[in-house]
Amino acid sequence: MADAFRDKILAGKVAYVAGGSSGINLGIAQRLAEQGARLAIVSRSQDKIDAAVKSITDAGGTAFGVSADVRDYAAVEASLKATHERFGDIDVLVSGAAGNFLAPVVGMSANAFKTVVDIDLIGTFNVLRASFDFLKKPGASLISITAGQGSHPMMFQAHACAAKAGINMLTRCLAMEWGPAGIRVNAISPGPIAETEGMARLAATPAMEAALKARIPLRDYGAKRDIADMALYLASDNAVYITGAIMDVDGGSSLGDASADALTARR
Ligand code: NAP
Ligand code: COA
């Protein structure tokens, strides 16, 4: 009979997930743990971290948590060091911490713009940069979580658009610089994902949700599992020749407006 543990595709691997205490990133952490990885969960709130770690250990996985704000380089570095001391070299690193809200540019202070850029872009730089000494080399897979905002301008999303566009370029630059060390650097760009804080903020009413779904080619939100499966793929040996890629998992959202109205207007 096959050994169930050996059959798991990340058996023996170490994964670190920044922003892993809720939503899409927690879904990724749970999926990596289910496939045998030992997990470090990092975010600000100790209560959220404790609940996330419990969800993994209750399901039979291995996880521990560290509280750190990704805007604080020293705290990020300490969380990576703690992970390395506990589990050894890091095989899979996910940078997914983010903050967002809808606001027109004239409705946001300089600090509001800076806050989102600091969490999303500078935070991702901090996580990736500080990880270098703690990574499995060769072999590590780094995955940042970007968004459609990184490629397509959106109203009331200037801060997130600027930040996620920066993450996309950082992904490509690091893929070039760190490829020779055997480190792969990719990003996942989720479309609208059901039951997340992000969509609660960006499409807060049933009418906004329906209008958004009507424009998506596949006509629905995605599930956290859809993003987790892409992360699992990028983390796995099946993706060893993929680096510098921005993987869209978005039901076709990034292709443009596929609503019936748009189709009629083009006839
Ligand atoms: P979420 O549940 O709010 O997840 C954000 C995570 O980041 C939380 O664990 C939060 O925990 C942590 N975090 C926030 N600020 C932090 C900071 N300064 N330092 C450390 N950790 C911090 O949101 P989500 O909707 O699942 O989004 C997750 C990721 O997917 C984000 O990168 C987002 O841009 C991306 N995304 C989401 C969607 C969507 O449909 N939801 C679509 C495209 C892309 P603490 O509060 O404990 O810090
Ligand atoms: N519209 C305009 N400005 C806003 C805003 C909104 N809806 N929400 C916050 N801001 C401004 C604040 O007024 C402040 O600016 P000011 O100092 O000039 O007044 C600035 O943004 C920072 O806010 P603060 O609450 O101090 O930041 P924080 O670091 O405690 O929290 C946030 C960061 C604002 C992004 C917070 O919403 C957060 O922690 N989000 C994480 C969860 C999340 O956004 N999930 C979705 C991910 S896609």
Characterize the structure shown.
The chain is an alpha/beta fold and 267 residues long. It has one domain (2-266): 3-Layer(aba) Sandwich (Rossmann fold). The chain is built from ten helices and seven strands. A seven-stranded parallel β-sheet has the order 3-2-1-4-5-6-7, sandwiched between helices. Helix 5 (110-131) links the parallel strand 4 and strand 5. Bound molecules: NADP nicotinamide-adenine-dinucleotide phosphate and coenzyme A. NADP nicotinamide-adenine-dinucleotide phosphate is lined by residues 19, 21-25, 43-45, 48, 69-71, 96-99, 119, 123, 145, 147, 190, 192-193, 196-199.
Helix-strand layout with pairing:
Elements: H1 4-7, E1 14-18, H2 23-34, E2 38-43, H3 46-58, E3 62-67, H4 73-87, E4 92-95, H5 110-131, E5 141-145, H6 158-178, E6 184-190, H7 197-202, H8 206-215, H9 224-235, E7 246-249, H10 260-266
Bound molecules: NADP nicotinamide-adenine-dinucleotide phosphate (NAP) and coenzyme A.
Based on secondary structure, the structural category is alpha/beta
Distance between the termini: 60 Å
Uncertain runs with pLDDT below 50, 5 residues or more? Answer: none
Compute the number of strand runs.
Answer: 7
List keywords for this structure.
single chain, alpha/beta, 7 strands, binds NADP nicotinamide-adenine-dinucleotide phosphate
